[in-house]
Amino acid sequence: MDFQQLKTRLKQHQKLKCLLLNFIMHPVKTRPQWWIRLFQFVYLKKGKGSVIYCNVRKDLVPFNKFVLGNHSIVEDFSCLNNAVGDLIIGNNSRIGLGNTIIGPVQIGNDVNIAQNVTISGLNHNFQDINKTISSQGVSTSQIVIEDDVWIGANCVILAGTKIGKHCIIAAGSIVTHSIPSFCVAAGSPARIIKQYDFDKREWARIKT
Q1: Which residue of the set 13, 26, 124, 177 is catalytic?
Q2: Are 152 and 169 contacting, i.e. CB atoms less than 8 angstroms apart?
Q3: Alpha-carbon span 128 to 12, nearest angstrom
Q4: Is 124 assigned a catalytic role?
Q5: DSSP helix/strand/coil, 94
Q6: Contacts for 112 with CB less than 8 Å, ≥ 6 apart
Q7: Which of 94, 124, 146, 149 has the most CB atoms less than 10 A away?
């Protein structure tokens, strides 16, 4: 039986699933138990020359993927969380100071993310007004950030969005919908303000 089949079978046995989850995740702190964190060196996949600084909070569990590519860096005071979805970061990418990244998220190669950026593939369910929001669980939708993207400081990237290749997201922007490749986007919500014109070989301003 492979790992994926085991996960599928556990989903069918709720009591066993809850017991196992509480063994792995602290029910109040909602982060991996200390004895699980002791073995992160076994299940975290780090590429050649990659660095995760010592003050990074690693809420990383063994039942979802965490991959950090070659020569990529996660700077201090960031939080990495794969508890609800895989977190994959490519080669030669930099996660800046104080970032929060919650899976499912896929980040490509040569991506630069500045300071205090939040990238979350998670949303809290709230539809039933007779229950507290915290008791209704979460839903997830993958974020994809393609190669060669620059995300400015204090941005928020919301669940289910895709940022195309060679995009720039201006500081302070909130990305609520997907941005095509070779664009500059800014604002709240982020909108495209420039796009590269391959015929003219220049960045063209988008009229609004």
Answers
A1: 124
A2: yes
A3: 24
A4: yes
A5: strand
A6: 93, 94, 96, 149, 150, 151
A7: 149
Give per-residue pLDDT as tens, 151-207: 999 999 999 999 999 999 999 999 999 999 999 999 999 999 999 999 999 999 987
CB 194 within 8 A of CB 203: yes
Q: What pLDDT, on the 0 to 100 scale, is given for residue 37?
A: 80
Q: Are 47 and 71 in contact (CB under 8 A)?
A: yes
CA dihedral 13, 17, 19, 23 (to 10 degrees): 160
Q: Which residue has the tokens 């800046």?
A: 96
* Torsion sign across C-alpha atoms 28, 29, 35, 40: positive
Q: What share of the chain is helix, strand, coil (3-state, %, to 5)?
A: 15, 35, 50
Say which CATH number the domain at 164 has.
Answer: 2.160.10.10
Mean pLDDT of 73-101: 97
- Same domain assignment for residues 54 and 35: no
- Whether 208 maps to a domain, the answer reads no
Distance CA 84, CA 61 (A): 9
* Distance separating alpha carbons of residues 140 and 93, to the nearest angstrom: 24
Strands of the sheet with 143-145, listed across from one edge: 45-46, 66-68, 87-89, 105-107, 143-145, 162-163
Number of domains in the chain: 2
The per-residue b/e assignment along 26-41, b for 16 or more CB within 10 angstroms, e otherwise, is eeeeebbeeebeeeee
